[in-house]
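seq as requested:
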Amino acid sequence: MASAEIAAEHERILREIESTDTNCIGPTLRSVYDGQEHGLFMDKLEGRIRNHDREIEKMCNHHFQGFVDSITELLKVRGEAQKLKCQVTETNQKLQNDGKELLTSMDELRQCRLQQRNIATTIDKLTHCLPAFFIISPHGLPFDPDSARADVIRV
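struct tokens:
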């Protein structure tokens, strides 16, 4: 066989090896060893292997750089996440403290409104009693207009 024919045959066999199921590789390899050029075929096979290795290395380098970039981004995000976590914790603490102050103020307001309502109820009840005080007062019960009781009656 001429060297061009042998080279073409070897290329065909290599393509067949690369594209064929490994269970059917036996007859393909037998055709290589049946001819006398198996040393030349081995050289071509090693060249093909080196080419594939270079392609794999390029692909790995490309993906490795992407991996490194991703890890760098994750580290930046982790730092930002830590800052955000601290800010959220600080804000939560401030809200808790402000909430306690608000609850205290609301409780004081509730107490004041309860007192205000009790005072209004007392004034209302005493207002209903005023006619009785005026009726009783002229009949000899001591009534001092400057006393504290007189102030209550005037209201």
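The helical segments are 3-19, 25-34, 38-136, 148-154.
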